Amino acid sequence: MTISRWCAAALTLSFAGTTASAENWPEWRGPRHNGLSTETGIKGSWAKDKNIAWRVPLPGQGGSTPVIWEDRIYLTSSEGDDLVTLCASTAGQTLWKTKIGTGNKDARAGEGNSASPSPSTDGKHVWVFFGNGDLACLDRNGKIVWQFNVEERYGKIDIQFGMTSTPILHEGALYLQLIHGAWREDYTVGKVIKLEAATGQQIWAIDRQQSPKEECKHAYSSPILVPGPAPHLVTHGGDCTVGHSLADGKEIWRLDELNGPSRYNKNYDGTLRFVATPTASEGFVVVPTAKGGPVLGLQTNVLTGNITGKEDAVRWVGDRTPDVSCPVILDGLVYLCMNDGRLLCLDLKSGEKKYETRIHNAQHRASGVVSEGKIYFTARDGVCTVVKAGPTFELLSENDLGEPQTASPVISNGTLYMRTYDAIYAIR
Question: pLDDT tens digits for 233-242?
Answer without folding.
Answer: 999 998 889 9
